[in-house]
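Appendix B. Chain record.
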Amino acid sequence: MQFENPRSVLQAWLDAVHSGNLDAVEAMYANDAVLIPTFSRKFRTCAESRADYFKQVGSKPGLGVEVLEDSVTSQALGGPVHILGGLYNWYNDTAEGQNVVLARFTYVIDLSSDGPIVHHHSSECPAT
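Structure tokens predicted for this chain:
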């Protein structure tokens, strides 16, 4: 699947996460993409380890991600390569109510690739 711009990649990733379609999530990443995930200390550098991470995260009831639109920045690095960054809230349901985790994200995106995400870093924002 080809994408017009970095925001369309982000939207497709959000749609795949929200639908629980782990195959579609994994298809967003290049074969050798690096994922530094929000909820794991392990760097995920192959399809199997990325799939394992999203399987674990995706098992949470009511899982979703909401981008804080005013925070999103995009930088063109030349040609089809872009950096997209910003803030998003990960949320899921718990016995105590909804759990919300604010995290910052950075994607390196190659629009010429069928797996356009070549690097994805996400980390929880500190409380202060």
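Further analysis of this model is presented in Appendix C.
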